[in-house]
Design a protein that fits this description.
Helix content: 40-55%
CATH architecture of the largest domain: 2-Layer Sandwich
Radius of gyration: 21 Å
CATH class of the largest domain: Alpha Beta
Number of helices: 10
Shape: elongated
Order of helices and strands: HHHEEHHEEEHHHEEEHH
Strand order of the largest sheet: 5-4-3-8-7-6
Strand content: 15-25%
Number of domains: 2
CATH superfamily of the largest domain: GAF domain
């Protein structure tokens, strides 16, 4: 147990040193920062790169925090904090379209609603707080999963996709083809695939360091949402996604 604790301390020391260095660290610099011998640091780097906690910067042997670690840091932000930051952006969408606007996020292989803003005329929201958004039937999930590694997509498609409505695609080849289309177009739709009579658009929220772990969407009754030009709604969601990325990174 004590030996394992010592190993964890070495991993923690390496991660802390790399996180504290803005431009990353070389193996030699990491040796000096941690006081560990070359062989130990070499093994630490190899293991941390393998699990995605660190990665070489621009193909060079300078190591920075990896996408997996940065994603964990982003997702570790409390939902209440994220809500306070993004709700003003969502409220602007509500004001513009008089439909529910929401943010969804990826964590532990599942996409769930994180924050929302609802128009005053609605008796209830069309998005349930914390609801799992399925990869094949929710625009918000499609807009996130389309930009994940194949292993993440495969895990989300494990098992038999549920047919929530007659519009839902359940063939895995068709689902993958749709995700490829979302990657190309930069937005996703849900045409009564999750709930009867409900239509939604969603766009990915892109971070320079971790890629896509959130999406921003607009949802409401099909007849009302479809009154608006698709290109107009998508443009508004893309602008909102950019604003949200700026708010959540402080850049």
């Amino acid at each position: 147990m004590a030996e394992n604790k010592g190993v964890l301390h070495r991993y923690a020391a390496a991660l802390e040193a790399i996180a504290a260095a803005k431009g990353g660290l070389t193996l030699t610099e990491l040796m000096h920062a941690t006081g560990l011998p070359r062989g130990t640091v070499h093994r630490l780097i190899g293991a941390l790169v393998e699990v995605g906690f660190i990665e070489p910067s621009n193909g060079r042997k300078v190591y920075v925090l990896g996408r997996r670690m940065l994603s964990m840091l982003h997702l570790g932000t409390p939902a209440q904090v994220i809500g306070r930051l993004v709700v003003p952006v969502l409220e602007k969408l509500v004001e513009q379209y008089q439909e529910t606007a929401f943010l969804a996020g990826l964590a532990n292989g599942e996409v769930r609603s994180v924050a929302m803003a609802v128009p005053t005329h609605e008796v209830h929201s069309h998005v349930e707080p914390g609801r799992v958004m399925p990869i094949h039937a929710a625009a918000s999930a499609k807009a996130i999963f389309a930009f994940q590694d194949d292993a993440v997509i495969a895990a989300a498609l494990n098992g038999r996709p549920g047919r929530f409505t007659d519009n839902a695609r359940v063939d895995k080849a068709e689902i993958r083809a749709e995700l490829a289309g979302v990657r190309e177009s930069g937005f996703a739709v849900c045409n009564e695939e999750l709930d009867p009579g409900i239509f939604s658009y969603a766009c990915p929220v892109r971070f320079a360091d971790v890629g896509v772990i959130y999406s921003v969407g607009l949802v409401g009754p099909t007849k009302r949402v479809r009154r608006h030009e698709e290109a107009e709604v998508v443009a508004a969601l893309r602008l909102s996604a950019t604003r949200i990325a700026t708010l959540l990174t402080g850049q």
